[in-house]
Amino acid sequence: MAAFFYDLAALAAHAETVKRALPVGVELFYAIKANSEPAILDTLAPIVDGFELSSGGELERAAECRQRLPWVLSGPGKLDTDLRRALELGVEAIHVESLGEIERLAHIADRLGRDQSVFLRVNPELPEAFSTRLNMAGSATPFGLDETDLPSAIALVAASTHLHLHGFHVHAMSHQKSVERHCALMDLLLEKWEQWCALLGPDTRPTHLNVGGGIGVDYLTDTRFNWPALCAHLETRLASLESPPRVRFEIGRYLSAFCGFYAVEVLDRKTSHGEHFLICRGGTHHFRLPAAQGHDHPVIHLPRHRDSANGDPQRFNVVGQLCTPKDVFSRACWLRDIEVGDLLVLPLAGAYGYNISHADFLCHPRPPLFFLSNAPEAAPDVGLSKKPGVAPGLKTTSGVPETP
């Protein structure tokens, strides 16, 4: 077997904790690019303030959600069809990323006769201290407008009959784990807010500062980002401003990562040139995250036919079925008493896992996705249903019939 399991009750509890910590007047949107499975969206919809979308496909996915929320549409390279569809669906705001995109959106809004709020996505000058492995701002990127283009962008929006400036948007650091750096980033962006508002006329005052997401997950230790500390710092900082903006976070990974698990069966074990290998069902075509980020993912060993694993630990390379040496989950995994048929579970698989993977490579079957709930129905016996911590009620997708 190779399958994904998502604990929806844990997802809801974590999202509620994140939401409760926010200061009054600060909003939480979910960036659905992290995981846009319908069950994930339906679980988060009653908790978050809205969804952040980045394509026409995500617009349609959000439209299927049982609860309608405010949406924003972001991302470079928006098609005219995406912009038109966003206006037709009534998105709350569109994050415009270039002068040309403003002109195209203004033309579409005029033709449809629809008013549309916009955020100007800014790629500001940032100190080197805010550089990360995945820079989204502060350097040459496809994302947003340079600060020198802001006066022209503001003028284009003001000249449009149907576009209205709602706020500014900056997504600067992605997958970073330091609360101190993120507090410093909030301070800098609030300073930028005042500078950018000064470029506007006396009768124009946007309401929102969208500070993006980028809250990281530590895949190698149990340490979590100190979200309450960031919220407390932001609350103090906003209270010090005479006319603070309404701040909005767009968080993906930090909301959904913790609820997901990828389980694989050990197919073979071997030794090659002095190194031990576990060949597992599935691979990075299902769960690309470890290879994409270049880390050794944590692994939980579930002996299938015995109560526990004994003996001295050995170091294994845990790999999948693909015909490439890059199909690796972990190169430094210490495990005891591994047998063919045992299960390995990779936690922290709820974000940027299956949804970014090349699932059709080598034409292997796609994995079933099991969504765990607190329902009392018996779960199908897939090797995990009798293990501690796995709820009994399951629903599945990806071609596997749903449990009623």
Order of helices and strands: EHEHEHEHEHEEHEHEHEHEEHEEEEEE
First-to-last CA distance = 22 Å
Looking at the overall shape, the CATH architecture of the largest domain is Alpha-Beta Barrel
Rg, please?
Answer: 23 Å
Fourth-tier CATH superfamily name of the largest domain: Alanine racemase
Low-confidence runs of at least 5 consecutive residues = 375-404
> Helical percent range?
25-40%
Major β-sheet profile: 9 strands, mixed
Give the count of structural domains: 2
Q: Helix count?
A: 10
Task: Tell me what portion of residues adopts beta-strand conformation.
Answer: 15-25%
Number of strands: 18
* Category by helix and strand content: alpha/beta
Overall shape: it is elongated
- CATH hierarchy class name of the largest domain: Alpha Beta
For this structure, the CATH topology of the largest domain is TIM Barrel
Average predicted confidence as pLDDT? 88
Written account of the structure:
By secondary structure, the chain is α/β, with parallel strands linked by helices. It has helices at 8-21, 38-44, 56-63, 80-89, 99-112, 150-159, 179-197, 227-239, 253-256, 289-293; strands spanning 2-7, 26-31, 50-53, 71-73, 93-96, 116-123, 145-146, 163-169, 208-210, 246-251, 260-272, 275-280, 300-302, 314-319, 328-335, 343-346, 369-373, 393-397. Strands 1, 11, 12, 13, 14, 15, 16, 17 and 18 form a nine-stranded mixed β-sheet that branches. Strand 14 and strand 15 form a beta hairpin. The longest helix has 19 residues, at 179-197. It is elongated and about 75 Å long.
